[in-house]
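Researcher: Here's my situation. A collaborator sent me these components and asked whether they could plausibly form a single complex. I don't have experimental data yet, so a predicted model of the whole assembly would be a useful starting point for our discussion.
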Amino acid sequence: MLLREKIKLVVPGEFSGRACFSALTAFWRRIYSKDHAQPPENQISLARTFDRRASSPELRGLIDTLKTIRRRILANTLLRGWTKWFVWLLIGLIVVAAVSVKLAGALLFAAVLATAGAAAISTWTWRNRPSKYETARRLDSAAGLKDRLSTAIFLGGIEDPDGMVGEQRKDALARFTKVDARGYFPVQSPGNIRRASVLVLVAAGLFAYRIHHKPPLISLLQSTARSQLVQSIFSPIVHAMEKDLQRTMALVTMKPDAAGEETRRDSAASNSEDLWKANDDQGAAQDQNNAADAGDQQQDQMQSPGNQEGDPSGEARQQEINSQSQEGKNANENADGKSQEQSEQQGPEGRQSLGQSLMQALKNMMSNSPNQQSSNRQNQQPPNGQGTPQSGNSQQPGATESDKRGESRGNSDAKQKATQTASEGAGSQQGTKELRKDQETHPVNAVPDRVALEASGFKEQTRMKVATETGTAQLAVRDQSPQQDAVVNGAEQENIPARYRFYVQRYFEHADNGKQ
Amino acid sequence: MTSSVGTEGQTGGQPLGQQAEFLAEKMAEVRREISKAIVGQAEVVEGVLIALLAGGHVLLEGAPGLGKTMLVRTLAQAVALKYSRIQFTPDLMPADVIGTSVVQENGDGRKSLGFQPGPIFTNLLLADEINRATPKTQSALLEAMQEKQVTVAHTSHLLEEPFFVMATQNPLEMEGTYPLPEAQLDRFLFKLRVPYPGREDLHDILDRTTQGTPAIVSPVVNGTQILEMRKVVRTVPVAPHVQEHVVKLTMATHPENRENLLASKYIRYGSSPRGAQTLILGGKVRALLDGRYNVSMEDIRALMLPALRHRIILNFEAQADGRTPDDLLEEIAGKLCAK
């Protein structure tokens, strides 16, 4: 497009080869004139102006010698540039041959690069070639002529000079004849020619090897990865990383699920056992991953056991939860077992490589986390207008058919949770009964539980409307073992691996049930 | 790019080439004559001769007893010039240097004010220990050194050419001295440091001064020839890259030059254009003394320190870091050559 515009400028209304040539010529002239319009401090452009000057006939011998020297300088520069470029190309080819499986494309690409690079270097070198003046300066420096020749070239345009210029020219020519000017600038092989030769040999050998063999670097890496030593070094690290990742993922998914867990727990507590069964049926129909997610979620739910203790139906639900979590665990274990089986099927020799096992572990965890979040979203229910967790029941099937007992139980669960939260998870049956009585006449002022747990994410907690009436709520207080309190509050939960939290939770619940 | 190329064929009746050869020969003779009295100090002698032919003045700095005054006196004898010496003291007044108007009585008994020239009316003036005089007296030399004239009672009096001032100062005894102002320093073409003589030179000095009679220095050139030589010097051509190097070197001493971090860090005031003029003129003389007809980069490098060391003023940071003008200039020149 640009060329067309230029052609139109040069030859309006015509687009032919001739016009194209004239446009290119004009473009070249413009570039050339720009180059000569550079400021005088640019020595190259300054010196190049001397090339176009007519020199005195006395200086022809000097100028011829300077031309020869200039050609040699140009040849040396070209050789140096080409060698450097081919060294880099050879290094690239060697790397490609050592790593890549396909060589034909790489060879073709290298050939194209070599040609293009050589052309670019030639162009650049020709463009920056030394002028006569610059060559004279170099010869002055090399032969110790103290700028005699460059000054003579500078004053070379003066015909038949007299006075000091003539004397200077005579002096320069007299000194010039005494030195072997061409001997100072021989065409010599580049300094890195040996390196290039070695690289050529290496590349040739590597390509010959590659005719019948795989890339050596890949083979070496594979054999190294399979070796017992590497396995013994990296397997503990991989296991430790896997555990850390699991723990991190469990901690990450725990916080955003707090509100969802709360509503889920309340709705679950308010439903009847039949509903739980229905839910169990639905849960049983879920696929393996969902089961695994549910298991994790149940683990999280088990960390806030206030409602379970306060509600008699909580135990039944707990059993269901346990079964679900067991299923989830089994699913996880199955998934892990599958991967283990796969690795075992490959036998000692066919063990998965380090990278593959890492990828497998990451995939497992990544597949768990989004499913878990989606299931959390499904289970998460918005609070009702009164701000009680009971409103979550409206989304549960058969919630309208639930009996009064179930509702009151749910309310009592919600209240109990609130009181537990206010008193750091404390609660008792007696307190629950009193609350039930109060609830018949007064609205429940629920307070989200696990405030202490989620102190860092306080803004994300479900906000409940709290009536400002005095004496509308009574806080239930019950005896609670300090150990359980610590587990509920999460003070020690962070130190317990996620997979063991459920068992620890169950241990404390059993102990509590035994007391009761 | 301009060049000071002399195109006139002859000066003083002879071809320029012959005059250049004559100059080189005569200066070699002057060196030989000076070497009869002055042992060693080849660089100082060369600097003095270059300044003499370039039409500038020289400030000699060195400890007492190194032969500064002897050098000036010997030079005056070798070039057959009128010579006078002024010992600068704190109570020296400008009139004591340049002269004053006094009442004179003519033949018929009439009295009138007449100008009594001072010791400055000479060809070769030795201003000994110039930094001991007050700035007022020192400034009396300003007009004489630059304009080659003195003005007394609204009357200007031209000094006789060649007028060549050689001032000395002692760097050791700084108490009770008045350091030369920058304007005064800039008027000196070169500031030459007179070093201590070496072992062999010291033996030679002892042999010459303690045995026999002092050497007699015979005149080699006169003032007129020196003026002719000055004209020849100006015809020496300068290649553009040499002149470019001089410009870059001068500009590299300017602290405003952001490209040179060294100058902006340590130099308060850089070289004036007089510094570049000195380098080119001195380079021309040096080329002729070397038997060349063109200025080379080597001439510029050789004259850089005497031409520029007194033209750059260092700041407090340079003094705190113990930097001297000489090492800063060497570093700047090294960086320029590396580019």
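Model: Some features of this prediction you could bring to your collaborator: The mean pLDDT of chain A is 65. Chain A touches chain B at residues 40-41, 43, 46-47, 137, 140, 146-148, 150-152, 154-155, 161-168, 170-172 (CB under 8 Å).
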